[in-house]
Amino acid sequence: MKQLLILFLFVTTHLVAQQIPDKDFRWTISKSHTALGKGAVVAIDKAHNNFHTLDGRFAAFGNLLRADGYIVKDFDSELTTQKLNNINILVISNSLNIRNANGDWSKPTPSAFTPGEISALNTWVKNGGSLLLIADHMPMPGAVLELAATFGITFENGFAFDSCKRPIEYFTKADKTLSNTVFTSKIDSVVNFTGSAFKVAGKVTPIITLDQHYNIQYPDTAWKFNATTKTVSAKGFLQLATVKYGKGKIVVSAEASMFSAQLAGKEKRPMGFNHPAAKYNCPLILNLFHWFDKK
Question: Quick check: 237 and 198 in contact, CB under 8 A?
Fold first, then answer.
């Protein structure tokens, strides 16, 4: 009963904590990766009822990439070969089928993408395109299940909860939840703010791995939990990884806020890489995008 009460309070707090973009936040870059406006073209999807868009909760993310030299714009149309061939990197974050986008966050959670779009995107990546695919807690993973599966990625359409009930979810090299890779050089920790989880069958490099303190819960409706809600251990599941697919590259994340700068609740608390504890989030993001650039 005590655990259910704690979970109820956590969920209630989350529901009332409105998230708005922190458009004034800037991460200082001493030297950009390429000359300003001369880098790769990054398109951020807004055509699939996305919760995070360039003119909204991903505003600071776009500013970060522009400061590093990238050309950043909206992707506001159907995924087609012609459209995809005009960009270098596509970012898809928390897309939703219109059924769920209209406010019904109960199951089922249909695909946000048509079979034609899925085929076009898969071919584009296979031929050398770069994709950042983000889907955090339910129902967002359900909206990309069919798309992700074509790359060997299996999202869990649920919530990955930290049983330690920490106010900030830390992933560190010390506890081995943050892998020691080329992406995490000079990075000791990263933080995020409640997501889901996934596994990959293929050429994967784990970056964030959930441990025994995490479980995955599968409610029938987002944020509505009870004693019968299915729960499994999340140990060994991933929340962030890179995947090589054909000639292309994919960064997969089961949490979106770590790529953003937002203000939550009436107090407008920092949530994202603007949080004081998230000083390594931006360097990690830039390392991931620099990997996209490498041939």
Answer: yes
